[in-house]
Protein 1
Amino acid sequence: MTVSAGSQRDADGRDREAADAWAAVRAARHGATVPAALEGAELCRMLLPVARPRALVVAQLGQSLDGRIATVTGASHFINGPAGIDHLHRLRALVDAVVVGVGTVCADDCRLTVRRVEGASPARVVIDPGGRAPLDAQIFADDGARRLTIRAEGVPRCPIAGVETVHLPLSAGRIAPGDVVAALARRGLRRLLIEGGATTVSAFVAAEAVDRLHVMVAPLIVGSGRQGLTLAPVRDLAFAWRPQAAAYPLPGGDVLMDCDMRTCAGGSARGEEQADERDQDDARRRRLHADG
Ligand SMILES: NC(=O)c1ccc[n+]([C@@H]2O[C@H](COP(=O)([O-])OP(=O)(O)OC[C@H]3O[C@@H](n4cnc5c(N)ncnc54)[C@H](OP(=O)(O)O)[C@@H]3O)[C@@H](O)[C@H]2O)c1
């Protein structure tokens, strides 16, 4: 893990560097080369791995020190400080589509637009298998961005003009995250930000459908409420997911953990399954040895 200090806003010079770096990152999204002088800028190091790939799934969670992404009542505005929220808007500006679960739409009535930084708003997608998102939700507002709803097969199409309905099959009551990624890619949306909430991000991580995970940790203890990532239990820390990660302290106290999830694919569950299989093989061998 690398730790970088400093801020993008601590002096005039740094402000200029941040503005130049953000312009370079946005240009890199369209294939432009980043000037060597900016390659090392903090913003470039944080965001170029998101900007450069033509296809990518990045997931984000903003959480407290005790791992909460919202209070018991579902309030999550705002766990992170202004610099953390700017970062979220930059992520939105770099992707083709931002994806949330219907729980977030119901709790937050989020707009999912880019407002705090320069950049275009992406398409907005809600995973809503039963079609329970309110029809007047802001995510469906006709502001020029593409709007899509992912529903289970057999559920009626969304009646709002201009909102695309994507029907996907349920398996054990859930839609496979890989099917979501493939369906959106077929519609030209290949760079995705899975913005929340916890259920949705956890499902994408568990399915190994996430390339990068950005966890923005705020110096705040909520003490109760909605937990962030929740995955299958592991019996030993040897089976915990251990992605390569870099930490970036932001002005105001938030710390971004940028995790490369491709370095730990299946880190927990699959490793544990293999360990179980090895244990069973050993036991079988011991039994055969004893019998023989
Ligand atoms: N701090 C942050 O970064 C952040 C970000 C976003 C949201 N939030 C907070 O998180 C809370 C909402 O999170 P949440 O975990 O309750 O809800 P959520 O993840 O937003 O939505 C979960 C629901 O979306 C549908 N869904 C998502 N993925 C699915 C899949 N693969 N297959 C089938 N259905 C799928 C299901 O709907 P059905 O129940 O209809 O089956 C599921 O119950 C809110 O309080 C919000 O404020 C925090």
Protein 2
Amino acid sequence: MSVSKSDAIAIIGGGAFGLSTALELSRKGYTNITVFEKDEEIPSRWSAGNDLNKIMRAEYEEDFYTDLAVEATHAWQTPLYAPYFHRVGYLNVVSGAASQKAVGTLHRFQAAAEKHPEMKPFFHPISGPQDVRDVAGAWQFTGDMPGWKGYVSKYDGYVHSANALRGIYREARKNGVRFFLGAKVGAIEKIVYEGSGKSRKSIGVRTKAARFHAAKLLIVAVGAAAHKIVPEVGAEVSAKSWSVAHVRLTDDETAALRGIPVTYARDLGFFFEPDPKTNLLKICPMGGGYINTNPSTGISEAPQELMRFVPKDDEEQMRELLRQTLPYLADRPLVEKFICWFADTADSDFIVDYVPNTSSSVMILSGDSGHGFKMFPIVGRWVDNLLNAPDGKQSILRWRWRVPKQKAKGESFDHDVSWRIGTVREIRDVQGQEAVKANM
Ligand SMILES: Cc1cc2nc3c(=O)[nH]c(=O)nc-3n(C[C@H](O)[C@H](O)[C@H](O)COP(=O)(O)OP(=O)(O)OC[C@H]3O[C@@H](n4cnc5c(N)ncnc54)[C@H](O)[C@@H]3O)c2cc1C
């Protein structure tokens, strides 16, 4: 199906993938683009990108994603994106207590950073705590960092993701993209189709308030909520989540930690330079994460409600990371805690393709697998490439629509991803452990 520059394009979801697409298509001359976003404002409380910061590291275990992340690093250095990119370096290590799995993953990341011609000059090995202070520049870390080994890449850093979403939202609006926000006008209930089987085709969307909007092309970018709009995605996508928390610092403490690298101990978790505006230091535990399996389908689906808590074990792990690095913070209250949901795939590959049996009228951007924010400036290019593919097909095979496999009872792909350490648990099993769930 060909889409002309004036045809109506509806993008469902104003998160990282949706906004990037809206901006890119508006730049490419498409003049009739509408974004539907369920929250009242952007960044949405449901967006996995609505956060102080995300790691911007270019080295991956595979050249394919490394090359994309290098391309994204260049894009983060252009005037529109540069205000959000903080190139403070990325300290990637394991502690002396790390599992073989964590050590193996670290070595593969290290090999990628060491061999890439552009990253190589920024790479420095770290063979112990003194190197963390002297080579990585984290001189403020007074903890004993037992057995810490790995590398620092000064090519990398972090991006202020909530501000980046705000900035690109503003830019897309300037370029003429229309936004419908909030429960009444922006929340989409479903895609409306005509025909069936192979001749099925979408004609638009229906909002939760039962209003119909016609569109020639629908682009579904709803993150962890993919199943709600495209149920056919089935077991190919699993809604998954991790804990996020913060430590509130004083002005002086924030100033003292200025410029620390993103610090990632693969067996414990990671934290970032404190945000000077809020004095919050963001910290996350590394773990297998949490799923929310629908007992009737066996598929993990994103919960509707926001979850403002972190499980006790995660909290203990974050405190241990602080104890090893910044011990004076280890017993501070953790604040602004939440569970953050993303769309996971078995192989961590994204899905950027048309949904089958829609006559190419519905495209899905999904499977960010918890590593998609770094690609924010270039996601829209992938959509434009697919729209212009001479044969109408996704040329990147690994991003094609995969036929959902039937999972045997009890089978799960959730433990297979190399860079995630730990066991995947049902969120309902840890929900009672601590604190409250906010229904917002
Ligand atoms: C804890 C955590 C840490 C992460 N850390 C990193 C990192 O360090 N580096 C990195 O590169 N990536 C990281 N990520 C991944 C990154 O945040 C995601 O890859 C990225 O946000 C995915 O973008 P998206 O647009 O697919 O989904 P989202 O950003 O989640 O956006 C989906 C949007 O769809 C909207 N929506 C949902 N349903 C509807 C509906 N029915 N109608 C209308 N709108 C709807 C939502 O409100 C939301 O705005 C992390 C993710 C998590 C959870």
